[in-house]
Amino acid sequence: MLAERAYAKINLTLDVLGRRPDGYHEVDMVLQTIDLSDLIWLEDAPSGVIEVSSNAANIPTDARNLAVAAARALSAACGLARGVRIRIDKQIPVAAGLAGGSADAAAVLRGLNRMWQLGLSADELAAIGAQVGSDVPFCVLGGCALATGRGEQLRKVDHDLRAWVVLVRPPVFVSTAEVYGTLTPDRYAPAPASRAMIPALLRRDFDAVRRLSVNGLAAATLARYPEVRQMWQRVEQAAHVPVQMSGSGPTLYCLLPARSMAQRLYNALRGFAREVYLCRFVS
């Protein structure tokens, strides 16, 4: 049996640039790994058998689970018919804009690459992951990256900025497809925020990074889901620092420069929010 960590991500920036001919939207995003993680356990199974179990009752354990899709994609790419039993110990909130499902899929790719001794590079695993989901390539590589195209085209951003992250998940499930479906051309970004964000990260300018964080889906999500808007307002009042949303939501986050400050905010938010998480950047 082999264990592999599956790390969540947040969007430091997310700009939607327009609709693509294939029906997807062109995005420009700066993604950052955080240390909130699931634990994936992998165990050999009879040939062709791919099974998933989990401690979480609200995720699928059939072919809809991206972990299953990842195992099948890797098997197909390598011409294998091996089986695997996958156990997902969930800590990342489900359908929260944190790429939890994609992180699990990426961990399966990395873990099976080791367990089956395939010798594939991270870039090769990321290419296979792109067949599974747009966020999977980033989750394979981790750290920080500029993601373009559908989110699968990556350029690594090697920075040394240390930051703490306090996450709050409002009690509502957000449909990414519905949020993107409400976008109109007036909400497309004229210029990507990453142009300023990446230099700020590289010079370790925490104040600039926090100030420059932007999410082009936030307005659409807040308009469609009043629970997210209400939570945003409450967090803003408690935090006295900028609040931002990850992905299509509903998870909100605040960046803090020190653990003591993050811990105080975490404690304050626990007074009115059930799902609050204290995390930090992972390089």
From TrEMBL:
The keyword Nucleotide-binding applies. It comes from the Bacteria. The active site is at 9, 135. GO terms for biological process: isopentenyl diphosphate biosynthetic process, methylerythritol 4-phosphate pathway; terpenoid biosynthetic process. InterPro entries: GHMP_kinase_C_dom, GHMP_kinase_C_sf, GHMP_kinase_N_dom, IspE, Ribosomal_Su5_D2-typ_SF, Ribsml_uS5_D2-typ_fold_subgr. GO terms for molecular function: 4-(cytidine 5'-diphospho)-2-C-methyl-D-erythritol kinase activity; ATP binding. Its EC number is 2.7.1.148. ATP binds at residues 93-103. Residues 65-143 form the GHMP kinase N-terminal domain. Pathway: Isoprenoid biosynthesis; isopentenyl diphosphate biosynthesis via DXP pathway; isopentenyl diphosphate from 1-deoxy-D-xylulose 5-phosphate: step 3/6. Residues 197-270 form the GHMP kinase C-terminal domain. Keywords: ATP-binding, Isoprene biosynthesis, Kinase, Nucleotide-binding, Transferase. Gene3D superfamilies: 3.30.230.10, GHMP kinase, C-terminal domain. The keyword Transferase applies. It catalyses: 4-CDP-2-C-methyl-D-erythritol + ATP = 4-CDP-2-C-methyl-D-erythritol 2-phosphate + ADP + H(+). Belongs to the GHMP kinase family. IspE subfamily. Catalyzes the phosphorylation of the position 2 hydroxy group of 4-diphosphocytidyl-2C-methyl-D-erythritol. This is 4-diphosphocytidyl-2-C-methyl-D-erythritol kinase. It comes from Alicyclobacillus cellulosilyticus. The lineage of its organism: Bacteria, Bacillati, Bacillota, Bacilli, Bacillales. The gene is ispE.
